[in-house]
Design brief:
The protein is an all-alpha fold. The protein has two domains: 64 residues, Arc Repressor Mutant, subunit A; 138 residues, Tetracycline Repressor, domain 2, CATH 1.10.357. It is 72% helix and 0% strand. The longest helix is centred in the N-terminal third of the chain and has 37 residues. The N and C termini lie far apart (109 Å).
Length: 228
C-alpha cells in the first residue's frame, strides 16, 4: 500500500504530466492545422477536425485560438512570418558575394520551407485568397511584403557592390520569386504540374534557375572605345 509520501509523489507527477501536456497543446494544434489546411484548404477544414487530429476537444482548441481565422494566422506566424527576424539577421551577417548570397537564400528557402508542408500555404493562398479578403490582407502584410523586401535587399546589395546591373527592383524581385513559387506549387499539386515520366529534382531545378537569374543580373563590362 502506498505511503502518504508516495501518494504525494504520484499526485505531483500526475500534475506535472498534465502541465507538460497543456504546454504542448498549442504546438500540436498548429501542426494539425497546418496539415489539414494544406490537405483540404482553408474553407474545407473544420475546427473539430483540427482538434481531433491534435487529440483534444474542440473546446480546448478555442481556449487557445478564438476562431479558425486566428488559428490560420497563428499557423502562418509559426511557419513563415515569425522567421523573418532570423532571415534578416543572416542577410546582414553574410560575408560572401551577392551572387553567392542569392544562391544561398534560394537553396536555404527550399531546405527550410519549400521542401516542408509549410510551402503548401502559398498554394492555399493563391487558390482561396479571393474568398477570404481579411486573410489575404494579413498574408500580404505578414509574408508577401517582408519576403519581397528581403529579396530586394539582396539585389540592392549586388547593385551597390557593382556585381549586378542596375534594374527595376520590383520586377527583379519577381524574377527570383517565380521559380520558388513554381516549385512550391508543383510540390503540392501532385502530377498536375509535371509529367510522371519527368520527375523534377528540386535542387537541380533551383540551381539551374539561379544560374539563369545571375546571368541576367550580372553587370556588363563597358564596351571598349572604338579605335580612332
Amino acid at each position: 500500500m502506498p505511503t502518504p509520501f508516495n501518494l504525494c509523489d504520484i499526485a505531483a507527477n500526475a500534475r506535472a504530466k498534465r502541465e507538460r501536456r497543456k504546454d504542448a497543446r498549442p504546438g500540436e494544434l498548429l501542426a494539425a492545422a497546418l496539415e489539414l489546411f494544406v490537405e483540404k484548404g482553408f474553407a474545407a477544414t473544420r475546427a473539430e477536425e483540427v482538434a481531433k487530429r491534435a487529440g483534444v476537444s474542440k473546446g480546448t482548441l478555442f481556449l487557445y485560438f478564438s476562431s479558425k481565422e486566428e488559428l490560420f494566422k497563428a499557423v502562418v506566424r509559426e511557419n513563415l512570418s515569425g522567421r523573418f527576424v532570423e532571415w534578416r539577421l543572416e542577410l546582414e551577417q553574410y560575408q560572401g558575394s551577392s551572387a553567392d548570397l542569392l544562391r544561398y537564400c534560394v537553396n536555404t528557402w527550399w531546405e527550410r520551407l519549400g521542401s516542408t508542408q509549410a510551402a503548401g500555404i502559398s498554394k492555399l493562398m493563391m487558390s482561396e485568397a479571393g474568398n477570404f479578403p481579411e486573410l489575404a490582407a494579413f498574408y500580404q502584410a505578414e509574408v508577401i511584403i517582408p519576403g519581397r523586401e528581403l529579396i530586394r535587399r539582396v539585389l540592392q546589395r549586388g547593385i551597390d557592390s557593382g556585381e549586378f546591373r542596375p534594374m527595376d527592383l520590383t520586377y527583379g524581385v519577381y524574377n527570383v520569386l517565380a521559380p520558388m513559387l513554381f516549385l512550391a506549387i508543383s510540390k503540392h499539386s501532385g502530377s498536375g504540374c509535371m509529367p510522371a515520366n519527368e520527375p523534377l529534382d528540386p535542387v537541380k531545378y533551383i540551381n539551374s534557375q539561379v544560374d539563369n537569374i545571375l546571368y541576367g543580373l550580372r553587370a556588363r563590362a563597358a564596351p571598349a572605345p572604338s579605335p580612332t
